[in-house]
Write a structure and sequence with these properties.
CATH class: Mainly Beta
Distance between the termini: 37 Å
Helix content: 10-25%
Structural class: alpha+beta
CATH topology: Thrombin, subunit H
Low-confidence stretches: 2-63
Oligomer: single chain
Number of strands: 16
Radius of gyration: 20 Å
Order of helices and strands: HHEHHHEHEHEEEEHHEHEHEEEEEEEH
Largest sheet: 6 strands, antiparallel, barrel
């Protein structure tokens, strides 16, 4: 998981935010651009795969709205070039980083079974065991809790959980994510919760690309040997959902990074997703059969008897193909006296589990998402996640409001 160390006050994003509403900038608002192309070929991001037209010819019939065309041109993005591999250009001058800059054109079948299976790099690095900057608040390091494999089929017990795939300059990467409720669309949510570092590289980078969510990934817990020949329906039984909108905190954009930073206590993100193959009239929540409420007013740490962290750990000794969970009573972790305190539990899950939801009894007495995996060391056996306060609620409410009339 990602190491935490105090970072210098990096403010490169502020120059680009001139002229943007302070409210939108503070919420990490992003632009939604869901376009469709088709692709085939090797899944490795370094492969020279060439997208082709689909058998139905849908790509040839695709009509791109003028406002979307203008937005792409504004960013210097040519859709044809993008779907033919231009997205692999990570030049700093073209790597979009600001809150308003997010683009994620759908490339159909880019995430095929082989590419999903080979995507095993977590975006974060390991932290040292003793990273507390506020000994007066931080509780003793918790004892390691061995991650337990979730019984298959995963959908029966954790229908909201899934795996997140995306591309970075280092290649294809993975995180975990959770379907959450949408106040604007009760029972019909298309919102997904994950970590900020699973969608944006932080202070020295920008938005990741080809972000897609797969609920109940490898639902039947197929062994690795069988996964090499598995069909897309076996690996992604409920489909692949692309993020047509992503939003994280401005604190993460300004202070986060692969080795931590001051953005860690704000390391959360909300996605709005759309099915890769087009809607059948059902929302993501209806398709998987569940969505978790998010509690932004959870009880204080001493009053929480246990939290359960869920995810697809991909760093050794795990391979990212199976769903695990850890249950433990949380303690407090303070990185710096002037930063919000984080939750911390014992857990042996590694990188790849980042973004996975932490479930506990909420303030209403029902199971709720209370945090998400953010940081942790390789050997000490603990994980930490952000407390979800007003900043997290602002991001969540903004995504919900954006799609309230749709």
């Amino acid at each position: 998981m990602r190491p935490i160390r105090p970072s210098s006050a990096e403010r490169t994003g502020r120059r680009a935010r001139r002229g943007v509403s302070p409210v939108l900038a503070a919420l990490g608002l992003t632009a939604a651009l869901a376009l469709t192309a088709t692709a085939c070929g090797p899944g490795d991001s370094s492969a020279d795969s060439k997208p082709t037209a689909s058998a139905t010819g849908d790509a040839d019939k695709l009509q791109i709205p003028d406002d979307v065309k203008n937005q792409l041109k504004k960013h210097g993005i040519d859709l044809d070039k993008w779907k033919n591999g231009e997205w692999r250009n990570w030049d700093k001058a073209t790597w979009l980083r600001e809150a308003k800059d997010y683009v994620n054109p759908i490339i159909q079948d880019l995430w095929d079974p082989d590419r999903m299976r080979k995507a095993d790099k977590p975006p974060e690095k390991a932290v040292p065991n003793d990273i507390s900057g506020d000994k007066g608040v931080t509780d003793p390091t918790p004892a390691p809790v061995k991650a337990a494999a979730v019984k298959a089929p995963y959908h029966q017990s954790l229908p909201e959980l899934g795996k997140l795939f995306f591309d970075s300059p280092e290649g294809s990467m993975v995180c975990s994510a959770t379907v959450v409720k949408d106040p604007a669309h009760p029972g019909k949510s298309n919102m997904v919760w994950t970590a900020g570092h699973c969608v944006h590289a932080g202070a020295k980078g920008g938005w990741y690309r080809n972000i897609a969510f797969v609920p109940s990934y490898n639902n039947s817990n197929l062994p690795t040997a069988q996964l090499q020949k598995a069909t897309k329906a076996q690996i992604a039984p409920y489909g692949v959902y692309w993020a047509d909108w992503a939003q994280t905190s401005q604190q993460w954009i300004e202070g986060g990074g692969p080795t931590g930073g001051t953005g860690a206590p704000y390391d959360f993100a909300v996605l709005h997703v759309t099915p890769e193959k087009g809607s059948n009239g059902k929302s993501l929540e209806e398709t998987v059969g569940g969505a978790l409420p998010v509690d932004f007013d959870a009880p204080a740490v001493p009053k929480i008897s246990a939290m359960t962290a869920n995810g697809y750990p991909a760093a050794p000794p795990y391979d990212g193909q199976k769903l695990y969970q850890c249950k433990d009573k949380p303690g407090r972790l303070s990185l710096e006296a002037n930063l919000p305190t984080m939750y911390r539990i014992g857990c042996t899950m590694t990188g790849g589990s980042s973004g996975g939801g932490w479930i506990a009894t909420g303030s209403d007495g029902k199971p709720s998402l209370i945090s998400n995996t953010s940081i942790g060391p390789v050997t000490a056996g603990w994980l930490a996640g952000p407390r979800l306060g007003k900043e997290a609620k602002g991001v969540y409410d903004s995504v919900s409001t954006k799609y309230a009339g749709r």
